[in-house]
Amino acid sequence: MAGRFPFELLDDPVELSSFQGWSEQVYHDLLALKRGELSSDEFDAKYLCRRAILVLDLTGFTESTMRGGALVSFLRILDAQTVCLPVLRERGAQLIRTFADDIVALFSEASGALDAALDMHERTDHFGRGNDRAAECCVGIGYGDVYSIGPNLAMGDEMNRASKLGEDTARGGETLLTEGAYQALRAREGLVVEPQTSDDLLFPYFRLERGR
User: Fold this and answer.
1) Exposed e or buried b for every residue in 126-152, given b needs 16+ CB within 10 A?
2) Contacts of 30 (CB under 8 A, 6+ apart)
3) Is 90 helix (H, G, I), strand (E, B) or coil?
4) Separation of alpha carbons 183 and 79, rounded Å
5) How far apart are CA 42 and CA 38, in angstroms?
6) Are 44 and 155 in contact (CB under 8 A)?
7) Would you call 140 helix, strand, or coil by DSSP?
8) In this structure, are residues 206 and 183 in contact, taking their beta carbons and an 8 Å threshold?
9) Domain map of the chain by residue range?
10) What count of other Cβ atoms lies within 10 Å of the Cβ of residue 62?
11) How far apart are the first and last CA of the chain?
């Protein structure tokens, strides 16, 4: 790339992967795609897969840090992880990742993600009784095609939607579904959801009624 730009461009897959965004192979294939040496269909065949995505966030993280300090927030995260991570394993999550007060889990089917969300709400409710530092779970669930790349092995539109619902939109105790997740779950007996719209979102979503 020397001479094309008056500044350095980093295009070495090995060095790019050292920053832990994508793997060396993914960088190699993306650069090949950019150069026209790999087709979009070939890239999709290698990395595209269908997954259910569960994104969990905790309520009050910023407020608890400001009021009680970082250690109080760390303990709230620890409490939530000790409750929620066993549920995700029990419900068959294929991948589980934690970052700060977030948990991301992948499932082969949307039903597994939904069962995990319901169990986590129930257990955190039980755990929180009499616990003044307990936090509630905010959950977003998506289902659809994603690229099996990146730290969570799920990147793409459905991952973005599930993350937006779980991290920014859901309130404490809520489970929100993308349209893809709703379509995958709509035949489930006893499922009661309410269609939702928001000026802050560019896509429709559904709110799951608790206790179902």
Assistant:
1) ebbeeeeebbbbbbbbbbbebbbbbeb
2) 22, 43
3) helix
4) 33
5) 6
6) no
7) strand
8) no
9) 13-45, 47-208
10) 9
11) 57
Q: Give me the tens of pLDDT residue by residue for the chain, a chain 212 residues long.
A: 445 788 999 999 999 999 999 999 999 999 999 999 999 999 999 999 999 999 999 987 677 777 778 888 888 899 999 999 999 999 999 999 999 899 999 999 999 999 999 999 999 999 877 676 678 899 999 999 999 999 999 999 999 999 999 999 999 999 999 999 999 999 999 999 999 988 888 899 999 986 54
d(CA 204, CA 124): 28
Give me the amino acid identity at 96. I
Tally of residues, the chain:
212
Q: What predicted TM-score, i.e. pTM, was given to this entire model?
A: 0.92
Q: What are phi and psi of 142, to 5 degrees?
A: -125, 160
CATH of 47-208, one of 3.30.70.1230, 3.40.50.720, 3.90.180.10, 3.30.420.40: 3.30.70.1230
